[in-house]
Amino acid sequence: MQNAELRSAQDALATSRERYFRLYDLAPVGYLMLDDEGRIVEANLTAAELVGVDRAALVGAPLTRFIAAADQDRYYLQRRAALGDGAGFTCDLRLASANLPARWVRMDVKPASGAAKGDLASWATLTDITESRRLADELAHANRMIAVGALASGVAHEFNNMLAVVLGHVELIAETLPPNAAIGRDLAAIATAARRARDIVRQLVAFARKQELSPRPIDLRAAASDLERMLRTQLRTGVTLRFELADGVGAPFVDAVQLDQVLLNLALNARDAMPHGGELVIHADNVDVRAHDPARGEPPPPGGYVRIRVADTGTGIPADVVPHLFEPFFTTKPFGHGTGLGLAIVHGIVTQSGGHIDVESPPGRGSTFTILLPRAALPPPSSIVPAVAPRARRYRGRVLLVDDEPQLRRVMRHWLSRLGFEVDDAPSGAIALDLFTADPDRYRLVVTDVSMPGMDGPTLVRRLAELGPAIPVLFVTGYLEAEQGPDAAPKPGRGLLNKPFGADELAAAIAGLLPDGA
């Protein structure tokens, strides 16, 4: 009887031990037992899986063999300092092996039971934190993009103020020239470059901040010419660029700046896929979508579209990567070399514009991104009749002009005077308020900058409204429309004009506020 009880107890003990070791091996964390010299004495299966080797290869090996070189010194110093005093420690480090990509783990180390002071034998638990580190990196990317957006906004304001001065003085000089003067072409080139710089600033801000789209019919031939000049400076030696615009290609109905952003993003991705050179082709033609095409996946609505293909002869995209291309923060570039936002932004712009985008990438044969954008009717250039310039309208009355930039204030004063206005100008909101308070009824219009030191434009306008009847106000600003806030937003009796602008644009904005002219 005693033998039977003994066997039963032994069987129960064996079962218990088996359950224990099964739980030990299948635990969600890795367990290691280390001797005084840091060699692995015992390891569970999870630890072996984290390292990427068989358990037999772990036992007897120093743990540092499986720690990434960049993290070994930190682990060694913490181990000596903490365990030498009989204390434990925690550190985050990377495990590296030839079989797996490096994995981040959080290592919690405690002195072995019964270890004397100075004895470095220990137990260690390894928790896989690779995913949490990835999410932290993505959050850091997002925070950097917010910082870039704030920086870009400030740059846009200051840079657009300078561009407004450049464009304004170009127009002032042009007015003094005789017809067909040779220098007129040079001035036109300066004006074109300044407007292009304005668009680049807007692209910078749009890259980091979601902007409201302003779609219009785009002349692709003119847009391609501008884009080609910009891309030539971005493509490395050995990459050839070719535009192919089919006869009769229509005008996509899309925001002009964001179309540039889409094509620039795709072109730069293509460049990066051709490190040893190749060919980049941007082709555009018309296509009609009449019904659902299963090969295209989720279709755009039936209708007429402009199809733009961006094709390269690069390395292509692995099949397992293609489904994730348009996901935010997804990137195959090394850390610090890509935000993972470029193609997500491209996808967002295209879909927000009512279009569709997909990609084909046969292994080793390059990639082709195909974009469908709604097609608008664009009159041929010969049938476009120039409108009468709004500046031809003449006005009477006095304008209160407020801007802290003296050179721009000088240019705008000249333009307003040419429209027939008498002009009082002020370099600050406080001075403008004093001028208005002296005789509120003398002013027909207020033209004010939005952002100024001290009293800004919206605050000034609120103070003016307390002094007399409502008066039309034109806000001018170097910031983008989406950043003005409700006080500067266009509404009845309120206009908004973005810097840089010319005399005709100023006149058109005033005509919208004073439609009856004189």
The name of the CATH superfamily of the largest domain reads Histidine kinase-like ATPase, C-terminal domain
Assigned CATH architecture of the largest domain: 2-Layer Sandwich
Query: Total number of β-strand segments?
Result: 17
Mean pLDDT, nearest integer?
80
- Main sheet properties: 7 strands, mixed
Radius of gyration: 34 Å
Approximate shape? elongated
| The top level CATH class name of the largest domain | Alpha Beta
What is the share of helical residues?
Answer: 40-55%
Treating each run of at least 4 consecutive H or I residues as one helix, how many helices? 13
Helix-and-strand structural type: alpha/beta
List the helices and strands in order. HEEHHHEEEHHEHEEHEEHEEEHEHEHEEH
The number of domains is 3
Strand content: 15-25%
Q: Tell me the span between the first and last alpha carbons.
A: 120 Å
Give the low-pLDDT segments: 334-341, 379-391
The CATH topology of the largest domain comes to Heat Shock Protein 90
Task: Tell me about this structure.
- The chain is α/β, with parallel strands linked by helices and 518 residues long.
- It has three domains: 24-128, PAS domain (Beta-Lactamase, 2-Layer Sandwich); 136-293 and 302-379, 2-Layer Sandwich (Heat Shock Protein 90), CATH 3.30.565.10; 390-513, Response regulator (Rossmann fold).
- The chain is built from 13 helices and 17 strands.
- The chain has helices at 2-26, 45-51, 55-58, 69-84, 130-175, 183-208, 220-232, 256-272, 342-352, 406-418, 429-438, 457-465, 503-513, and strands spanning 30-34, 40-43, 89-95, 103-111, 122-128, 215-217, 239-245, 251-255, 278-289, 303-312, 356-360, 368-376, 398-402, 422-426, 443-449, 473-477, 494-498.
- The strands form three sheets. Strands 6, 7, 8, 9, 10, 11 and 12 form a seven-stranded mixed beta sheet that branches.
- Helix 5 (130-175) crosses helix 10, helix 8 (256-272) runs antiparallel to helix 9 (342-352) and helix 11 (429-438) packs parallel to helix 12.
- The radius of gyration is 34 Å and the shape is elongated.
- The model is unreliable at 334-341 and 379-391 (pLDDT under 50).
